[in-house]
Each structure stands twice: as C-alpha cells, then as structure tokens.
C-alpha cells in the first residue's frame, strides 16, 4: 500500500475513520457482552432456534476460536460462533448469532448479492494481495502495462467490498426481524442488538472506503506517470 501521492490525505482521513469505527465496535460489543438477555439464551441456542424455525436443521452451529471471528461457511453449511458468543447469554451474543444465521438464510434463499460475492472471492483475494505489488513494481520499472494490471486487480477487491455491503446489511436486517418475530429479545433489548449490528456493519463501510481511497490514489499516480 502507498501512503504517498496526490491523495495521501484522503487515505489518512479514511484510515483515521477506520480506527474510530473499529474502536466504536469494540466498545459497543464489550458493553453489551456484559449485559445478559432476559431469556438467558446463549448465542448457540439462538442460532439453533432460528435455523430450526426455518427448517434448516442440516445447518450446524459450531464454536470457533477468537473474538469476533463469527462467520457462516456456505461450503459446509455451518454457522461458526466465536467461543464467547457461542456460550454467552449476552445481548451482543444474540445479535451476532442472529446475524450469522441471516447469512445461512441468504444461502437457503439463493440471495443474489451473496452468490455474486462468492463468485468474486478468488478475484478479490488475488486483487488485494497481488494488485498493489504489481502496481508498485510497474511504477518502479516504468512498466505502465504492469502498473495498470495491478490497478485493475485491486479494483476487483474494491468491487468485492462493494458487493459485501448489501450482504451484510441484509443479514443484519434479517437478524433484527427474527429476534423480534420469535420474541428472542424483549422490545427494550432490541435497541442494544441494533447498536451492535450497526457498529459491525460500519466496519464494512470503512473497508470499502479504504479500498476506494487507495484505488483513487493508484489511478491518480498512474495518470501522473502517463503525463510524464
């Protein structure tokens, strides 16, 4: 990654915003991880209950190491919850569990943005890992074609981040709807779940903003090089 160029100020601004958002998520998650839900349901119990209500009995719920490592694996049809959320009866655990189940429901519904994102994963991985290096090497060797290829590859990573937004926001919307529908949270507990999910969703917005900022930087640098 390059912090030098005509749009270095934009990258630094987005980087600062990203740190603020990450801090907001950590504080929000920590706060509501200490607040138990009225029904005493753990994250694992919540996930299993919602999945069963939709007839998705084949989807497994498993613990995974780490904090905020929760995810849904469409290949194995498994909702994986971080160890804390798996066993915790906190408001944060219920919100996160319901969100990951939201991805399982998207998979079952063949939700188009999720399918598109899955197809973009290989290009995004190559673009985010290889794109910046090809761009930098292309500039150093004055090989415009190589630098341009790096720019295009990195653009694929930015497109992946863009497609990720509707997937994540939709999963959070499903989570809140199901927590309300199945009365897993009391009405006065739903705002806490919404705060946790909103903070988490904003990290994806920040990731997209960072990718776009670098993309603008690369394009500007490449444009300057061509003028020379």
From TrEMBL:
Tagged with keyword DNA repair: no
Coiled coil regions in record: none
Transmembrane domains' residue ranges: 6-25, 133-160, 196-216
Matches recorded under InterPro entries: Zn_peptidase_2
Keyword Transmembrane helix: yes
Keywords in alphabetical order: Membrane, Transmembrane, Transmembrane helix
Protein name (record): Zinc metallopeptidase
Organism: Oceanithermus desulfurans
């Amino acid at each position: 990654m390059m912090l030098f160029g005509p749009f270095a100020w934009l990258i630094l601004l987005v980087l600062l915003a990203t740190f603020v958002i990450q801090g907001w998520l950590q504080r929000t998650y920590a706060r509501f991880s200490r607040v138990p839900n009225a029904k005493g349901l753990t994250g694992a119990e919540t996930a299993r209950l919602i999945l069963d209500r939709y007839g998705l009995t084949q989807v497994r719920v498993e613990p995974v190491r780490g904090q905020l490592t929760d995810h849904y694996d469409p290949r194995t049809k498994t909702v994986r919850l971080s160890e804390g959320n798996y066993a915790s009866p906190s408001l944060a655990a219920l919100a996160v569990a319901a969100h990951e189940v939201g991805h399982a429901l998207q998979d079952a519904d063949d939700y188009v943005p999720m399918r598109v994102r899955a197809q973009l994963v290989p290009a995004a991985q190559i673009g985010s890992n290889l794109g910046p290096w090809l761009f930098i090497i292309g500039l150093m060797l004055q090989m415009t074609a190589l630098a341009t290829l790096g720019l295009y590859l990195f653009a694929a990573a930015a497109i992946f981040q863009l497609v990720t937004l509707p997937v994540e926001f939709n999963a959070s919307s499903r989570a809140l709807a199901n927590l309300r529908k199945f009365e897993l949270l009391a009405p006065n507990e739903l705002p806490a779940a919404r705060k946790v999910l909103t903070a988490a969703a904003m990290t994806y917005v920040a990731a997209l903003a960072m990718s776009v900022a670098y993309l603008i930087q690369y394009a500007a640098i490449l444009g300057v090089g061509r003028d020379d």
